[in-house]
């Protein structure tokens, strides 16, 4: 039976990690998407800064993952998936920061195993609109860098999930790595062939699909059982707002049809952190309950 999850981000900033898992549990969720990306901020990455969590040894770095592990165990919430720090790849002439990110991602895999989390979402290795790589170079970079993570994925039993991305220029949304679902499928199949077993899957982001005008059901059917995780959220079709279902313009009936078509039976996880910035925080726990109820409704209708 499908479980319903939500990211720890948003609530985590307001109530801390322990408080986040308590509220997630009380709202009726079964699972969490652990925002371990908080260990290494976007700003620190683009500024080429290292951080203690990932400078530590493989053994010592586990202490930094302990809060997510202990809170999940305390409240009976499954750490179904986790989100790695991002961006995974930046414009880096020396290559030192991008190599450091491989070290970061390897330690995140180890941390996932420690947290009993079996799926790690790792953004593809791509650059923004102005620095974007040509398609063949982008393909080569991604295959090379994801392949470097295969030994850890195998050793620790963690599936690495690519995600459909986008970029923007002057208020206009453009496609980016894995937004072409044909190419996304080819990435997963090629990487698993290199690994010799299933080490890679896909995290389908519904909001990113919507920004690019892509049909959610068609994308789900095309990816099929490559889908290992979801980032379920809504938006106005223009901005990446990370809102709850029905607060934007996504066709949720098509989403349910997609779940039914692929017979999805894993965890359905929401990435709706922005409700904590959109409505009064006193109302947010109740809004979390509504999101959990929406997930249960989607699961029930998909099973009909």
TrEMBL record:
Xylose isomerase-like TIM barrel domain ranges (all copies): 24-279
The entry's keywords: Isomerase
Lineage of origin: Bacteria, Bacillati, Bacillota, Clostridia, Candidatus Ornithocaccomicrobium
Organism per entry: Candidatus Ornithocaccomicrobium faecavium
Keyword Coiled coil found: no
SUPFAM superfamilies: Xylose isomerase-like
Matching InterPro entries: IolE/XylAMocC-like, Xyl_isomerase-like_sf, Xyl_isomerase-like_TIM-brl
Keyword tRNA-binding: no
Record-given protein name: Sugar phosphate isomerase/epimerase
Sample GO molecular function, one term: isomerase activity
Domain of life: Bacteria
Bilayer-crossing regions: none
Pfam families, sorted: AP_endonuc_2
